[in-house]
Amino acid sequence: xxTYDALFKRLTEARGVPGHEEQLRRIxxxxxxxxxxxxxxxxxxxxxxxxxxxxxCRVMLAAHMDEVGFLVKFIDDNGFLxxxxxxGINVTHMPGQRVLVTTESGQVLRGALQLARPLGPxxxxxxxxxxxxxxxFVDLGISANAVKEAxxxxxxxxxxxxxxxxxxxxxxxxxxxxxxxxxxxxxxxAMRSHQATIYAVATVQxxxxxxxxxxxxxxxxxxxxxxxxxxxxRDHPGGKPEDNITTMGGGVAIKLMDTSFISNPxxxxxxxxxxxxxxxxxxxxxxPFGGTDASAVQxxxxxxxxxxxxxxxxxxxxPNEMASVTDVRAAIDLLARYLEEAHGGDxxx
Length: 349
What we know:
The protein is α+β, with helices and mostly antiparallel strands. It folds into 2 domains: 235 residues, Aminopeptidase; 91 residues, Elongation Factor Tu (Ef-tu), domain 3 (Beta Barrel), CATH 2.40.30. The protein is globular. Helix content is 26%, strand content 29%.
């Protein structure tokens, strides 16, 4: 096991949907405190750790703390909960899952996530209808009165999944993007020296529109931003090789573009030079959809050179997200080596 697996377990098993990242804030602040000169939490809930250095080179690292999940939007007379999704959740993966409902008081209730329709095969000649958000409900297995005493509208719901190591893979819910938070922290720990000012920002509300990154990027005025996030690895049955995007176990992915931003080409070349020089496994990524925190910061004020380091992840936004142990190690090494020489970069176009 890697030395940081225990931290990864804490991060992935913590519960925190957009707007409710309190558990993650406590963990991240605790881990950053010995590594930085100052930690603070801004008005939106981003955790910002600052390592003092040159005012001329200010590197912002951004990794989001929130995970996809739900809010309770309605409690019916029988005590069943109806849900409002937060983030892009594929409904087909949800029926039959176990979930945790975190209440305003901090109580955690385990429940079954089910479909509000008859179970079993369709009738002869009937075409099965795909599930929709409106079909989902949570059964807490307790009386309606007990539900209404404990749960209220706005309580949040997350997947009930533990962290596991399967050979050379990590398996858990919320690898997106607790893996980025882990890499950010561990890269600071592995960094041998630095001259740049470094802002390590654990952002909020990325899954609903990169909101935390937008405000922190505007406030910090970095000269470079590096988002750390997962990206699809479609190297499994059901896809074409040309649509894989990345390969799990192929190394950290250096993103060239997604639909929200295009990486600064000189920044891409800098990261590639380091990876080649240090023998760090890496691959290039073009993502034809989606986006990361880098997109919000890139457009702050007069513009910021931006890039994303990605971790190939199978089954993202499901209860069983999977990432490679070796890819995580490669990302930590690449980011740490970059931070040691970030002050030497010239990304003017």
